[in-house]
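Dear all,

This email documents one entry for the complex benchmark we are building for the journal club exercise. For each entry we list the sequence lines for every component of the assembly. Then comes the predicted three-dimensional structure of the complex as a token string, followed by one or two observations. Please use this as the template for your own entries, and keep the labels exactly as they appear.
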Amino acid sequence: MSTPQTTNVDSIGALLSPRSIAVIGASSNGARIGGRPLRYLIDAGYTGAIYPVNPSHPSVQGLKCYPDLASIAAPVDVAVIALPSEHVVEAVQACADQGVKGVILFSAGFAEVDAAGAALQQEVCRIARSVGMRLLGPNCLGAFDSAAGFFATFAQVFDGGVVRPGPIAIASQSGACGAYLVHLCMQRDIGVRYWITTGNEADVDLSECMLWLARAPEVKVIVAYAESVRNGATFIEALETARRNRKPVVMLKVGRSSSGARAAASHTGALAGEDAVYDAVLRQYGVFRADSIEQLLDIANACADGIFPDSRSIGLVTGSGGLGAQMADVADARGLDVAPLPQAAQDRIKAILPFAAAGNPIDITAQAVNDISLISRAMEIVLTEGDYGAVVCFLVSAPASAAQTEPLLRAFTALRQRFPERLIVLSFAAPPAIVRSFEAAGFPVFEDVNRAVITIAALASFGESFRVVRSDECTPAAAVDAAPTPWAEALDEHSAKQLLAQNGIPSWPEHVATDAAGVGRVAVDLGCPVALKILSPDIPHKSEVGGVLLNVASPDAATEAAQALLERVALLRPDARLTGVLVSPMCRGGVETICGVFRDPVFGPVVMFGLGGIHVEVLRDVAFRLAPINEREALSMVREIRGHALLEGVRGAPPSDVDALAKALSRLSWFAVTHRDRVEEIDLNPFVVMPRGEGAFALDALIIEKESNSLTG
Amino acid sequence: MSTPQTTNVDSIGALLSPRSIAVIGASSNGARIGGRPLRYLIDAGYTGAIYPVNPSHPSVQGLKCYPDLASIAAPVDVAVIALPSEHVVEAVQACADQGVKGVILFSAGFAEVDAAGAALQQEVCRIARSVGMRLLGPNCLGAFDSAAGFFATFAQVFDGGVVRPGPIAIASQSGACGAYLVHLCMQRDIGVRYWITTGNEADVDLSECMLWLARAPEVKVIVAYAESVRNGATFIEALETARRNRKPVVMLKVGRSSSGARAAASHTGALAGEDAVYDAVLRQYGVFRADSIEQLLDIANACADGIFPDSRSIGLVTGSGGLGAQMADVADARGLDVAPLPQAAQDRIKAILPFAAAGNPIDITAQAVNDISLISRAMEIVLTEGDYGAVVCFLVSAPASAAQTEPLLRAFTALRQRFPERLIVLSFAAPPAIVRSFEAAGFPVFEDVNRAVITIAALASFGESFRVVRSDECTPAAAVDAAPTPWAEALDEHSAKQLLAQNGIPSWPEHVATDAAGVGRVAVDLGCPVALKILSPDIPHKSEVGGVLLNVASPDAATEAAQALLERVALLRPDARLTGVLVSPMCRGGVETICGVFRDPVFGPVVMFGLGGIHVEVLRDVAFRLAPINEREALSMVREIRGHALLEGVRGAPPSDVDALAKALSRLSWFAVTHRDRVEEIDLNPFVVMPRGEGAFALDALIIEKESNSLTG
């Protein structure tokens, strides 16, 4: 049911930068939905042709008005439709007939309302797609390209004037939220180049817009607001394109609290709340997932300067020891390294500021903040000798003091010129005009020290993400090319393990016996104690029929137990094909984990990892990654869970073979991608990780195939 | 080494509201440390007498100047000292001689610098205390009472004018941070009544100031900044007094990141990072611990209206579905209940807004935000029929629109008058003057929806805390009165368990045998398997000598094993007194937990609880409470840990007897408080909680006595 991947992403550009625009349902009243876009286009000095369309007026807002689209002699690139929903099909048909390249459909009353509206939406989309015309909306607030003065929107936010161009682009599924973001940008004097609201996404969706923005060289930062992604593949392509182009993506994805909804059941797929998958995907592709609108803009604005630290170490220069400690707390929580200054540099700081704490935070004290030369010299030492990825300087409210504003601005402008490539973030409280002047000098400024430090952490993460050289093996495109190896229709535990072993995912040794006597013979060969398990492609959950016996102490006991087992299961499940009994030596030692993959409806195969027992089922201590992953990514996944110390060897236990674990996770992800059309879910539970050098093995394996496959089999 | 508890808290008031003030080290230069307080006192219209003291000038800033304190004929209530540290002892002595009631000591160069400074500070403190004169500082920024125009500070923040009075009081250990807070209050037009910076706390400390503020009826909200608390008892008294007076305390406590420092060892005391104890104490006494300066003021300002919700349910009225979802996420994360409107109310909303989502969030859509009567009617329905503790209304940027500002303000003023007792928080973006006008109408306003929801969660928590009726048994004062029961010097495991059992903390049944043959006889009586443990007051950690044997299968095996055990221990620890061997039936079933108490240097006995095994040692899934606690508090502690579901019965296990657990935790806390002078630490590890109705028992118990006790024993 997923939307087919659209390949003509360039057409998004045609929607945003047309040479001519018609406004169908044009109004003389600049406060109405059909009047606002005309007013904004005129106000913003749009240089293309503007054609108001309304049969009731000869002219609208000083422009010649046309009775219908056909009456316009010149080509119309984009048409805005501001009509009640009942007139929309006719208008879209007219656009299609006239060769319009893109339609921006403001009208509400479609799929967001009821089934009739959904049908209407489908019809509108069908007309547009039949001629290759792109359609933005319905139920959207429109779009703009501020550099072209192209404001095809009825967002009230531009009533007092339009936004200035800048390096930021915004794509939002919500019109109101998109408009709010622009309003806040204008309030903070942040320039915005493109803005697209996708509304009901009948045709154009958020992922396409993000992909186009990721490719557009004039865009330096992508801000996105999403409720749900329709096209996982395009979304990933957009994120990966942005990453390759060193273009940060900052995103507000709502729906965290729904994450508990699917958490009731216990199989692998159900462990992933939908939100957990989004969270994993965003982290995996280097997106900063903002907690709030405010944070979204904090980070986006700071990204606009294009300086991304090359390490996670941070220097904290502060006029308040207390807020220095606060910054250190936040830095620690965000994984930044508050490394001390080298001793020589500390000595140099002490020489100019005897009462300063010179380690890190470097507390220059509130008094020193009044002596600008001291700040400059301290900052010079920290920037030259500290080897920090970023430095934050908390100036209390010194810049607000009339006598200090200009000298401080001069001092910091000089620092900026001397260290043009270094990320320096300021924190102080002052009226907006003063804050703007420091921002214009090249410094992100935050009143709250936490926001300064969080911003640095985000920028450092972008830097890390940009530096990753992803091998081609780990792009979804390459994965799909891998040649799948076919397998027999019905997989029991043993054949599933064999198949996985062929694909590099090892299992614990085991033997198949077809009857009770055979079980006894295998037990003699292996030596006791052994484990016995019933083998049947029709019994995925063996414990439900008492199909697992552990610690069987002797060959005789094994024979006897196997006989009882076969009889019991035959009685309980007369329908099931019994292919035999699995016999294996008992596995001693090692750490039990759960490894699995499941198919996410949006993103496809997702790998999951957790520790066994209560860790996954009760503590929900699980990590996810979009498949495929390489071993490096698998290791990061292993380290992400709270209980990862258990694999490092605690309470006298030896460290576990995490390399073998990571290799298996990577191979498992590859297997799932290669067989994505066939595999619904794979559970390796438990997957035991032995001490370092001794490997890691599936003790149990379950491959669930997709319904459609079973039906056609 | 703790500072003795000061009982004359009223003397803090004398420091803040004197009838006369001398400024020793007065300067004509209003920008100098000795000049600023004079300038501020004059500017703020302080009506008391002001006596500049400086031998070099006949007058200073238009006031008659005195060569020394003795030359002032009238009594001096408070003296500010703004002199270099080397002249401070002499000045403080002069103050003491002249009967000054309080000294505010700005000077730096004391304990914050070096040992010589610390000695100087001690001398200054000694002089002050010898005559009962209170001393604020040294190394502080001073204090103010804005209503009296008493600004005894050199904080630069008042260069442009002083702050207006208001219901908020600020106590800060950091001068710079305190000044920054006031600056931000002035920027947000928040009134501040009292402000005290305690600096090095030679005499007056933060806890005393907070206690005084908690008692002062004119103070409605206490804002505190702390690095470390010196006097735990006074601090707790301050928090409990504030709570009883329905006075919210909002606190920034830095030092979270140091919490990992003590986490290496594995015994109970070491499990508590210092910060975890602060965190528990603040939660336990209803303090809102802010994450940032910004949040500190968000919450404090919203508290000033004195409306605290009577439930955690929240109605979300929004002009943006997307940001409605965002608010729902935050509400969920903060434990607020986003309960749907009753169906009848939903129908009424639908009748006026057919396209609205009426459940909760109630999405009135961006269009409706333009029709003020629709907002009013929707809010009226939500407030009347929703039964919500609080309602947040997100107005996008409608109030910023020139045509809507006044009508919206009128509409909300009418709502405020109709629902004066309801907490209604607004979120919108608009210029500061417009925001202020809505705030003045009685609505907290936030640009960011998250901050609106977080504020409501904080106010709801204050409401909950204010409603708690704490029984007298649970105040530290009552605890200290309990009569301690003495015990013999050396406690081995068995006598420790007996002592605890006498105090209501049950142990698993066990018998003491004095020799191997006796062990065999007990094993016959009990029936096997049994557990054997070596018993010695000198071997607290039995496993280190192989002193624990589990699952001993027969009486003969028990005799044999006991003999070997006694011989081995005698060999390994010839010094240890062996009092016998503990024999007990094996304990089957139940959930292993760890219960304990330890003595925090600031707050005294702290109770800790966690699940057994890796939960505490690896996952750090632990809860703490200041002792004593009642059973209700003990239950909240049990529910606080991430793994608490394990006690509710998972994977087919029955629910555990948490009532018995809570009772034992409460009794343990009482025991620790009663014997606070003797007990260093108690570990019950494991403490097994059986299925509901079957109790909870210590399988092991260790009581570590304070060093001083052992030495005197």
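Observations: The radius of gyration of chain B is 31 Å. Chain B has a mean pLDDT of 90.
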